[in-house]
Peptide chain release factor 3 (Nitrococcus mobilis Nb-231), 526 residues
Amino acid sequence: MSKLRTEIARRRTFAIISHPDAGKTTVTEKLLLYGGAIQLAGTVKGRKAARYATSDWLELEKQRGISVTSSVMQFPYQGFIVNLLDTPGHEDFSEDTYRTLTAVDSALMVIDSAKGVEERTIKLMDVCRLRATPIMTFMNKLDREGRDPISLMDEVEKVLKIRCAPITWPIGMGKSFRGIYHLPLDQVRLSAGGPHSPTKEEGIIKGLNNPELDKRLGLQAEQLREEVELLREASHSFDVEAYRRGELTPVFFGSAINNLGIRELLESFVEHAPPPQPRETTTRVVDSGEPMLTGFVFKIQANMDPNHRDRIAFLRVCSGVYRKSMKLRHLRSNKELRIANAITFMASEREHVQEAYPGDIVGLYNHGTIQVGDTLTEGEELKFTGIPNFAPELFRLALLQNPMRMKALQKGLIQLCEEGASQLFRPLTGNELVVGALGILQFDVVAFRLKHEYGVDCRFESANAVTARWVSCDDPERLEAFKERNRGHLALDICGDLAYLAPSRVNLELTAERWPEIRFHATREH
Ligand code: G4P
């Protein structure tokens, strides 16, 4: 097998989806720990304090303690290279999360076993479903009194509409939580007690009928045997093809904080999760094994160093090999770019790249040439599809304290919106600047950054819109007529595409009924 094929076969690129507080940060920490990427023995608290400086790039993040940005962590595990793309926990930055999900090949869903399926998990699953992303499930916090495991799986099946196949099964729960049973391997791992990461063999008892189990678990051993017998009859068995099609999710139980169930999860993950997958473009499907480099930008991170106005574009490599200082063709501007220093993301430290393979993320320094959604190649003219803008649900007018700063405001807003911090709309009538977002904190971030990076004092006031729809029509005359009649509600977005800013949901419905030839799109592809 060629080097490229070998590297592809051992890459796994994924993100974690969960409702806040379910344990995403803790699971991330433990995965890194097993991957040997961090040596922090302490608790999550220790981790949070220790890693603050490296992962929280924006000053605002530090002030608020919210992770505004996604970062990327790469770690090796058993010969595999795992890329974990972190997503903001706060729902006000869901746009960032949605885009990050376009750059992964699979996802891990973390559920708090006391709470079950929560609202944000439902939304994120909907986004995963758009691309049939394969999902593994980790039911966390079994060390607390939670819901019955069967009813948890039922809920996932009903609410998230995906079949569940248990791989591990909890022994007890809450105070009586003793460990987990691995169904395919027919072995038990008993809780080692304490927060250190157990070695491969630690606490392992082979075989459900092993008398050692009765010695160690007492009555719980018999109960486990009964449960497993029932489970083998009543639940779905694991089918890797159905998992890869996004129709079935393997389920793992455990307690992240106590390191229980994480090793089993990670081992299954590297074994079964898909390597870098083929990707669609406007002209053809690109296979990861093709020798020429292609990739797309799913995220821009600005001003990590406040002394330099540089930005880092996060490029997902889709095919070929990225080599230091190579020339790349930037399709939108049709220019050649030579990126002098690109970075990879080895866990908490940023390192300079020598080579990167499909599935890897490369950080490209630039001064604003590169936007979210852009494709880079070694020359071929193609454009990756499926990196969406979602219609904002909150709108504000950007108003200046000092009218002399109009130019700076426009420049700042355009640049911040190109990064995807929020969306800018310029109404066809008047000179207003309308900023759209999915979460209220996005406005705070924009105002903060305008002040600190562009020296513009800007305040936001409510605008007369509740949602936006990008409009298109096959008949240019009808489109003109529509524009004439609805000028007051129409605006151009940052790419010059026409959008209808609806003052109410009812108005949107009525307008759509009145103009059947006009198509109203809730998402726009970059
Ligand atoms: P998030 O990133 O999904 O928001 O969750 P995070 O990992 O920060 O975990 C949320 C809370 O749940 C944390 O407690 C964390 O310690 C706790 N937690 C995570 N995994 C487990 C588990 O397996 N069992 C139990 N019992 N708790 C768990 P916190 O008090 O909010 O934070 P901290 O003070 O511990 O940092």
About this structure: The chain has three domains: 14-66+105-273, 280-377, 391-525. Residues 39-57, 64-70 have pLDDT under 50 and may be disordered. Residues 18, 20-26, 44-45, 48, 89, 140-141, 143-144, 255-258 surround guanosine-5',3'-tetraphosphate (CB under 6 Å). The chain has 15 helices and 33 strands.
